[in-house]
Design brief:
With about 325 residues, the chain is α+β, with helices and mostly antiparallel strands. The protein has 2 domains: about 180 residues, Ribosomal Protein S5, domain 2 (2-Layer Sandwich), CATH 3.30.230; about 140 residues, Alpha-Beta Plaits (2-Layer Sandwich), CATH 3.30.70.890. It contains 9 helices and 14 strands. The strands form 3 sheets. Strands 1, 4, 5, 6, 7, 8, 9 and 14 form an 8-stranded mixed β-sheet that branches. Strands 11-12-10-13 form a 4-stranded antiparallel β-sheet. α2 crosses α3 and α5 packs antiparallel against α6. The protein is globular and about 65 Å long. About 45% of the residues are buried. Its EC number is 4.1.1.33. InterPro entries: GHMP_kinase_C_sf, Mev_decarb, Mev_diP_decarb, MVD-like_N, Mvd1_C, Ribosomal_Su5_D2-typ_SF, Ribsml_uS5_D2-typ_fold_subgr. It comes from Caldifermentibacillus hisashii.
């Protein structure tokens, strides 16, 4: 009863921000992302009848009580569905900067969902797997698929109609995403807490809800046309609106650092020079810069000149979750 899965992170072009149900992780709005090829998590789950509790190892070290409890609570839902009361050893290797806005939870819970359900004997349809991944981390439901993916918010109270669906294969619309690291420290306000505070206290949040579905419709149209300019404009606008909602929360908070602003300004300056590039950010200080593959070296070179930039990772649309053969986890 052992399986290993590999899942990649994704970057939301239309953001998921706010939940209508905290326990089932049901979003207030639909969202759309692109799965990235560079960042990923490899997770092995082994159920064992001799265990009396779940054990979680992250990057080779035994995880603390809080992280272990969260993984154990997640596995409880899988055990209940499979009608098997077995504990597991979970070993996860995160090839993603954790808790800095690079979506480590997306790849983490997508890999965990795939490995755990396979190990316990479930053979799920990708749509079902997406729903299980959502229970761990909302954005994880999108990492089940490669390429461009929509998470449909659904309307049912039980969450049965809230799952991700593929929009375009990773080879259908070649773009480049330069992930610009300006900070490696753990966020002061984690995404879950930030969402909750914003939904409950920000007067700007209703404006977000009033416009985000229109942004989604426009971006899907841009994908149909393979219109990079339209895609970039919508993604940048949508990211700025999401981050604006946090400034109205009580107490206010923000994820940007001064280095974040420097990268954003550099991207806008590139456009004035005729280099087409756009920025987006999830709930963290690091910036993702969208451009066409033929411009990625020029964009990379300009971003590299910013003193506050620590590292730049060049990404492209990547694959969905995969089950790895036994032993391949060590290779990854």
């Amino acid at each position: 009863m052992k399986a290993t899965a590999k899942a990649h992170t994704n970057i939301a072009l239309i953001k998921y921000w706010g939940k209508r149900d905290e326990s089932l992780i049901l979003p207030m709005n639909s969202s759309l992302s692109v799965t990235l090829d560079t960042f990923y998590t490899v997770t092995t789950v082994e159920f064992n009848e001799k265990l009396t509790e779940d054990v979680f190892f992250l990057n080779g070290e035994k995880a603390d009580h809080t992280d272990t409890e969260r993984v154990s609570n997640y596995l409880r839902a899988i055990r209940k569905f499979a009608k098997k009361h077995l504990f597991a050893v979970v070993r996860s290797e995160n090839h993603v900067p954790t808790a800095a806005g690079f979506a480590s939870s997306a790849s983490g819970y997508a890999a965990l969902a795939a490995a755990a359900t396979k190990a316990i004997g479930l053979n799920l349809h990708p749509q079902e797997l997406s729903q299980f991944a959502r229970l761990g981390s909302g954005s994880a439901c999108r990492s089940i698929y490669g390429g461009f993916v929509e998470w449909q918010k659904g309307v049912k109270e039980d969450g049965s109609d809230s799952f991700a669906v593929p929009i375009l294969h990773e080879d259908d619309f070649p773009i480049a995403v330069l992930s610009v690291m300006v900070a490696t420290n753990r966020k002061k306000v984690l995404s879950r807490a930030g969402m909750k505070r914003t939904v409950e206290t920000s007067p700007f949040y209703q404006g977000w809800l009033d416009t985000v579905e229109h942004d989604l419709s426009e971006l899907k149209h841009a994908l149909e046309l393979r219109d990079f300019t339209l895609l970039g404009e919508i993604a940048e606008r949508n990211a700025l609106k999401m981050h604006a909602t946090t400034l109205g929360a009580n107490p206010p908070f923000y994820y940007w650092q001064s280095a974040t602003m420097e990268v954003m300004e550099a991207v806008q300056n590139m456009r004035s020079q005729g280099i087409e590039a756009y920025f987006t950010m999830d709930a963290g200080p690091n910036v993702k810069v969208l451009c066409l593959p033929e411009d990625e070296q020029k964009v990379y070179d300009q971003l590299k000149q910013i003193p506050s930039v620590k590292k730049i990772f060049t990404c492209h649309p990547g694959p969905g979750v995969t089950i790895l053969p036994t032993g391949e986890a060590d290779v990854c």
